[in-house]
Amino acid sequence: xxxxxxxxxxxxxxxxxxxxxxxxxxxxxxxxxxxxxxxxxxxxxxxxxxxxxxxxxxxxxxxxxxxxxxxxxxxxxxxxxxxxxxxxxxxxxxxxxxxxxxxxxxxxxxxxxxxxxxxxxxxxxxxxxxxxxxxxxxxxxxxxxxxxxxxxxxxxxxxxxxxxxxxxxxxxxxxxxxx
Length: 179
Prior knowledge:
Layout: E1 15-20, H1 29-37, E2 43-51, H2 63-95, E3 99-106, H3 109-120, E4 124-128, H4 134-140, H5 143-150, E5 154-158, H6 162-178
Parallel strand pairs: 1-2, 1-4, 2-3, 4-5
């Protein structure tokens, strides 16, 4: 008896990947990991950056402070647009996915990323980790941990590799010398 069946090539299956990005080297780990995965023509990619609301100290009734906070908000939005645009271009060039789009949101980072993942119907969400542990994680919280615990989506937490640690140390030293 001869049995026939149709093989479906894996390249024909489209996977939806949401990549959460942030500024600095820590925010690039997930983009670098996505490239290593080799998600090319079989991937729809959405790049998401979430801006947290301004702290209450900047939201004041003093007109001069309000103008300053408006300028800061405007600069943050412009930087976010630049960030996601650069990453979109990089992914189009390096991965050649079936599609790449970008989204900038404002609000609680973990909540907004989970909402964006559900709206996109993501098969995979890639987030980064700043590598905090112990008391720092307890006091500051962990976006990647909150998403991993509360999301209904598959989550991949990308960490920087050892070589990136040298770049971070150099960046932090440079920032300290400027200050």
